[in-house]
């Protein structure tokens, strides 16, 4: 067996940070197996590797515990002709700055907004979002622990109507900033003239609010959503940054 096939990706299936890494692995044609977990139960696995959050990538040469570290590692070791980070040092710096902005702001605000509108107290919706492809004992654990899990997630991510409204403003500001960098609706990338970690990160982290057709087709994305949520999805899909992110999904995913 190809040694690279032993790459293990520890995830929560719905996590957009995990989608970022999945996309990078597939784009660079690096074989891996994914091990999905239910939130909170994921800590039983992540702590074995000295981490808390997902994604974690376990490779034959080391363990990587942050999506950006994972992308750096994959890009540096990939045999593929395409790359996620430009060779030019100034362009590389720009890509890294944008990636950091998207990771630290866009991903966080989209998660908060999403939880508010999917309804953290909605057992059915959360079962679909959290239990996908997880081990059986974690799915059973979810049924018992759901009320507590829902409260913990609400507290940790500070999910409330007021915070979701201000998160949406932050999301729109980042969309505006992205739009400013793009030359037109049909072509163009955030940095230079080819697809990079900046484009991938923006599209992957924006996916929960744009719901691209070829997103890993999970039930929670296909299911009907609240009208208030659908309105925002439709509005953002029509923006320059929204169209650009959906194009990345069509052309590079
Ligand atoms: N900076 C991290 C953020 C990852 C992240 O926030 N992951 C969330 C899922 S969306 C998580 O694992 N939360 C549970 C926890 O921290 O225990 C990265 O880019 O990998």
**Helix- and strand-based class?**
mainly alpha
Coarse shape: globular
Average pLDDT rating = 93
Which fold name corresponds to the CATH topology of the largest domain?
Answer: Glutathione S-transferase Yfyf (Class Pi), Chain A, domain 2
User: Can you list the ligands bound to this structure?
Assistant: glutathione
Count of the separate structural domains: 2
The count of β-strands is: 4
Q: Identify low-pLDDT runs.
A: none
- Helical fraction equals 55-70%
* Biggest beta-sheet profile: 4 strands, mixed
Strand order of the largest sheet: 2-1-3-4
Following the backbone from N to C, one meets helices and strands in this order, namely: EHEHEEHHHHHHHHH
Using the CA coordinates, give the radius of gyration. 18 Å
CATH structural class of the largest domain: Mainly Alpha
- Named at the architecture level, the CATH assignment of the largest domain is Up-down Bundle
How many H/I helical runs?
11
In whole angstroms, the N-to-C terminal distance is 26 Å
Kindly estimate the percentage of residues that lie in beta strands according to DSSP: 5-15%
In short:
This protein has 253 residues and is mainly alpha-helical. The chain has helices at 16-27, 42-46, 67-77, 89-118, 123-130, 136-156, 161-181, 197-210, 219-222, 227-237, 240-252; strands at residues 8-11, 33-36, 56-59, 62-64.
What does this structure look like?
With 253 residues, the protein is mainly alpha-helical. The protein has eleven helices and four strands, in the order E-H-E-H-E-E-H-H-H-H-H-H-H-H-H. A four-stranded mixed sheet has the order 2-1-3-4. Helix 1 (16-27) links the parallel strand 1 and strand 2. Helix 1 (16-27) packs parallel to helix 3 (67-77) and helix 1 packs across helix 8 (197-210). The radius of gyration is 18 Å and the shape is globular. Bound molecules: glutathione (GSH). Glutathione is lined by residues 12, 15, 17, 39, 43, 52-55, 66-68, 103, 111.
């Amino acid at each position: 067996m190809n040694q690279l096939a032993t790459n293990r990706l520890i995830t929560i299936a719905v996590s957009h940070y995990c989608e970022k890494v999945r996309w990078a692995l597939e784009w660079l044609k690096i074989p891996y197996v994914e091990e999905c977990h239910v939130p909170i139960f994921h800590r039983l696995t992540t702590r074995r590797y000295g981490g808390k959050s997902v994604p974690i990538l376990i490779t034959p040469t080391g363990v990587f515990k942050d999506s950006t570290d994972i992308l750096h590692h994959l890009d540096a070791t990939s045999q593929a002709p395409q790359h996620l980070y430009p060779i030019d040092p100034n362009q590389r710096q720009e890509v890294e700055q944008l990636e950091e902005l998207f990771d630290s702001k866009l991903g966080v605000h989209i998660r908060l907004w999403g939880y508010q509108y999917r309804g953290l107290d909605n057992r059915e919706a959360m079962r679909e979002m959290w239990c996908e492809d997880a081990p059986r004992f974690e799915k059973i654990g979810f049924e018992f622990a759901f009320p507590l899990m829902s409260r913990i997630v609400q507290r940790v991510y500070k999910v409330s109507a007021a915070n979701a409204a201000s998160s949406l403003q932050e999301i729109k500001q980042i969309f505006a900033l992205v739009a400013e960098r793009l030359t037109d609706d049909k072509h163009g990338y955030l940095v230079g003239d080819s697809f990079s970690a900046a484009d991938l990160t923006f599209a992957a982290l924006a996916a929960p609010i744009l719901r691209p057709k070829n997103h890993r087709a999970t039930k929670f994305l296909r299911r009907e959503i609240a009208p208030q949520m659908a309105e925002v999805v439709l509005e953002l899909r029509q923006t320059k940054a929204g169209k650009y992110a959906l194009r990345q999904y069509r052309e590079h995913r």
